[in-house]
Amino acid sequence: xxxxxxxxxxxxxxxxxxxxxxxxxxxxxxxxxxxxxxxxxxxxxxxxxxxxxxxxxxxxxxxxxxxxxxxxxxxxxxxxxxxxxxxxxxxxxxxxxxxxxxxxxxxxxxxxxxxxxxxxxxxxxxxxxxxxxxxxxxxxxxxxxxxxxxxxxxxxxxxxxxxxxxxxxxxxxxxxxxxxxxxxxxxxxxxxxxxxxxxxxxxxxxxxxxxxxxxxxxxxxxxxxxxxxxxxxxxxxxxxxxxxxxxxxxxxxxxxxxxxxxxxxxxxxxxxxxxxxxxxxxxxxxxxxxxxxxxxxxxxxxxxxxxxxxxxxxxxxxxxxxxxxxxxxxxxxxxxxxxxxxxxxxxxxxxxxxxxxxxxxxxxxxxxxxxxxxxxxxxxxxxxxxxxxxxxxxxxxxxxxxxxxxxxxxxxxxxxxxxxxxxxxxxxxxxxxxxxxxxxxxxxxxxxxxxxxxxxxxxxxxxxxxxxxxxxxxxxxxxxxxxxxxxxxxxxxxxxxxxxxxxxxxxxxxxxxxxxxxxxxxxxxxxxxxxxxxxxxxxxxxxxxxxxxxxxxxxxxxxxxxxxxxxxxxxxxxxxxxxxxxxxx
Length: 585
Description:
By secondary structure, the protein is α+β, with helices and mostly antiparallel strands.
């Protein structure tokens, strides 16, 4: 995985969440919020308008959400490093058109200098639900939407060469670069302009020219490399085709129609008291940055750039997220065509780079910050300042976490764990109804953990013994497997090969189950060896980084030549559970 995904997660991360969520076993993809095993395809109705409501109103368990709030609060307090992970945070969760949680904690302005000297209490500013944040790279989504609006209007296609707009792209390998390559970060450009725009050039015209003159690091189309140069260039294309500045385009064509009243570049001084502070910068000598874009290159371009510069609130970003879930429309205002959202923003154009799935603007299926909401069509983006947006079309849900994690210093560490916890809380608040009967065995582990569900011994007389069960699996991948094992002595365990059927199920005979995104119960069948004393166990284990929403097992049956050796529905006492619980959700 790319460097920005690396997570120094301690053993037991998500434990605070898992401890309180043992009864909330999965996400729902249906309108009634009651099931996650059969996701409802398509968008929410275009007329869906957000409203506030308690989690229970849409079938959610509030316990995982409360646990995530507690987790965020704990990260605003100093730890063993002597400082918190972030000064403050605002979180928002929504499902099926209902905002089920708004949570603000910590400080929007807390420190006086880069060393972390706290301001006097009367000079600090608390986080509030309407705090305005520097969205950092989430700004890229606004530029991408502006580009796709031009596609909708027929002013360009995603395969249009960039050389059509700028002669600097007309020679050498740069001639092969298309709009699509810029949107999916496979253009070949380096991550950032070198030298930095703010340090290497005297004025805005020379800085803009430096972007267009950027050399390639890789041959176009051969390598995924997340690059600000891509979106800077796309911003210039938007300006060239519209004849307007990027900030005016974003306002007139996106934020104003949607009613995003606190979203835009270079927020006015009248809103300063609502803006979260970012970093205390000595180089360039800007002091405590508040109300001005944190990204130095965007700052050097006057605060308006294709890759950074947008300020927004959790409430405004919720409108944008619901617009995407509505297929490009909100309150009767359409900013994108439904097929543009589906086929361009939510379709993976980077299949040759499996870890870097990407639509035209949105990142897709990134568990490192999407947590258990991740799926092949889950879309999102993060920002360097500590912002996160995750949109899950299959469950018609989204999670927004805005922090000022660079206040007062960018060196205070990663917040990826908090990003995961917040998104996963919404996932684990949703229900997976049992495949059969009134409950199912469920395990929702944190990182670097293991859980076992074992049967009491029974006897098999021949090779005609069969085990069958249903499995719901939502894990990071093969490093977080669910495995059926057998033992004749209760000490030494061997995997049992099984066949699996259902949406997204592995083919052939397999010895472990893993994966996420299919969100369906699988039917599993295996053959057991003859043994005078045979025990089975389901072992679910996780590696140190990232977890899905967990696993469930239901409807366990062991039969031999027509007779029943074990019926889990009728005799749950036949199981010994460690890290598993019976759950009706």
